[in-house]
Structure formats: C-alpha cells, structure tokens
Amino acid sequence: MTNFFSKDDNNTNNLFSDGIDLSADDLFGSSDSINTTQESEKKTQVKPKDNSLDGQYNALKDNYEQIFIEAAESIRKELDTIKPQNACEGCSHKDCDIKRKDIFAPYPPAGCKLREWQMQAITYLTGDYKQKLKAAYNDIMDKKKNYECNRCAACCMLSVSEYSYTQLKQRAMKGDKFSEDFISVFVPYESEEDAKEVNPEYFALLNRLVEDEKIYYYYCPKLKNNLCSIYENRPNICRDYPHNPLKLLPSQCSFNEWKDEVSHQAMLLKAKTDIIAFYKEKLG
Ligand code: SF4
Ligand code: SF4
User: Fold this and answer.
1) Claim to verify: residue 214 and residue 138 sit in the same structural domain
2) Residue 12 CA to ligand 1 centre (angstroms)
3) Beta pairing, strands 187-188 & 216-219
4) Domain check: are 124 and 260 in the same one?
5) 176 and 232 share a domain?
6) Is the CB of 79 under 6 A from ligand 2?
7) Which residue's CA is the closest to the ligand 2 atom numbered 8?
8) How far is CA 132 from CA 42, 103, 135, in A?
C-alpha cells in the first residue's frame, strides 16, 4: 500500500517500508550469490526532472534499481574486508566440496571459519552498520530543516489512508497515537468524486498504482481560506509532514526540493536496509 500524499506515515521505519517496491529477492532472484560486478559498472543515471506525479514515480523506480545494485556491491565489498584469509587451511572438514566460497555458500555449521565469517557479517550488519544507516537517516531529516513549507495547503486538502474513518477511530481507542492525531484533524470526503476534484492528477496515478486495494480520502476542515486555523496547535503529523523523502508529494509542495536533494541518499538507505533483511533471512 502506497500512501503517497498521506500523513498516515508518522514512523521513521516507513522510509524503508514502502514507496518503492523492489526487494532483495527481486535483485538476487533464486541465486544464492550476489554477483553485481557487471551491473555496478553502470553508473546511476539521473533522469531529466519531470515534476509530474508520473514523472516522480517513474524516476524513483528507474533510479532505484541501479542504486540497489550499488548498495549490494558496497555491502559485499565491506564484508569481504572481514573475510578470513586462507580460511580452509587446516580445516578438519575433509569432505567439504564447496567450490564457491562466497558469503551465501552452505558452510558446515561448526568448525568452519567461513561459517564464522557469515555470523560476523550478520552481527556487523545488524549492529554497527545499522547504526551508520540510522545516522544517515538523521542526516536526511536534518536537511529537511533547510526547506520551508510554502503553505500551499495541498496536503491539508487531500490525504489518503488505507484505513476507513471507523478503523482509524478504533485504532486510536487502542492507543495508536498516529490514528489519534489523524482523526483529530482529518475527516473523510463524502465521495471519491469530491476528493478527485481536489487533485485529479493524483487520482489518476493512485488508481493505477493501488489496483484492487481500498483507500480512503480525507480533508482537514481546520483549513479556512487556505490557512490553517489551528496553526500554533497543529498536531505532529502536520508539523512533521513530509516525513519520507521517498513518498510522492503534491507537485506544488516546496519540500520537493528537499526530496530532490536527498533522494539518492534515501534510496541508498532503503536499498541497504532491504539488503540487510535479505542477509538476515539467508544467513541468520
Ligand atoms: S491542522 Fe492545519 S496544517 Fe494540519 S492538515 Fe489541518 S489545516 Fe493543514
Ligand atoms: S508546501 Fe508541502 S507541506 Fe506545505 S502545505 Fe504545501 S503540500 Fe503541505
């Protein structure tokens, strides 16, 4: 589910959870090995800027594949630096016939230095390496402070959620802070047609992307004469918006400049996060 304009996204993990659908399995397929040498020679091509929603979406998808390969190659190189040299010398596993001694090979569970290397790799990727990714995420969000909302109100006039209003209320009653914030300002449009009038471009794109999924459209009645009537007391979902540089933003949103500045960094971060999950699944 991809909530491109939604404020339904108040979780830093969401930077990595959607917006672009390309997983490590897509890249690595059924092969157990990561062989990116040839692909990594292709440098990331930054396509000419197209501010339309279709353009933003296509640019994200097109660039992400190359960036994903770049990320996989960089992780592989890092793990090679901790690979033990001459690991098989003096090994007691006399019948070991593993030819391809890469990170994903099926090494014996005990007494094998390369199996120890696999475990060290997981410890590193989920420990120190993940801390580096968190620092990179913080850097991305810090850069957002260099940009200001132009008060176009596009995000106030149209927000989408995978949850109905009733579901949001139920979630709020169960303690979900985001849902509580969301329903403290947003109310549902009476009809999809009403929402469509607000941003037909968005509708056209969304309808193509979500296919059979049901989504719900909201607006904020606190918006009066295109100004927020509770500006000083607006909730965090409004103060923090947009919280994900990989989401599509309304074309008039001034934070598109922030997205442009950090999109490569953010895609690299998402790719690395997905790749760590893949390593964990394969080696953990
Ligand atoms: S509370 Fe204010 S900033 Fe938030 S959505 Fe409503 S009008 Fe916009
Ligand atoms: S500039 Fe962006 S954050 Fe500000 S009101 Fe417009 S859409 Fe919302």
Assistant:
1) no
2) 21
3) antiparallel
4) yes
5) yes
6) no
7) 155
8) 25, 21, 5
Nearest CA to ligand 2 atom 6: 152
Over residues 2-27, the pLDDT tens digits come to 333 444 443 333 333 333 333 444 33
Answer yes or no: do 232 and 176 share one domain. yes
Summarised one tens digit per residue, pLDDT across range 199-219 is 888 777 767 777 677 889 999
Task: Please indicate, yes or no, if residue 78 is contained in any of the structural domains.
Answer: yes
**Ligand 2 mutation pick, 53, 218, 248, 255, max ligand atoms within 8 A of CB:** 255
CA 154 to ligand 1 centroid distance, Å: 10
154: Cβ below 6 Å to ligand 2? yes
Portion of the chain with pLDDT greater than 70, in percent: 80
Same domain, 159 and 233: yes
> Which residue has a Cα nearest atom 5 of ligand 1?
156
- The pLDDT tens digits of the residues spanning 157-201 come to 988 888 999 999 999 999 998 899 899 999 999 999 999 999 888
- Note whether 117 and 83 are within 8 A (CB): yes
Q: Please check whether residues 158 and 249 belong to one and the same domain.
A: yes
The boundaries of the domain holding residue 119 are 60-82+104-147+255-284
The 10s digit of each residue's pLDDT in 42-79 is: 334 444 456 667 777 777 777 888 899 999 999 999 99
pTM: 0.75
Residue 160 belongs to a domain: yes
Looking at the domain assignment, is residue 246 inside a domain? Answer: yes
Q: How many structural domains comprise the chain?
A: 2
- Distance of CA 195 from the midpoint of ligand 2 (Å): 17
226 DSSP 8-state letter: T
The answer to whether position 27 is within a domain reads: no
Identify which of 268, 271, 272, 263 has the alpha carbon closest to the alpha carbon of residue 47: 263
Please choose from 180, 225, 233, 234 the residue to mutate so as to test ligand 1's pocket, defined by most ligand atoms within 8 A of CB: 234
Tokens 């969304």 sit at which residue?
206
d(CA 259, CA 109): 45
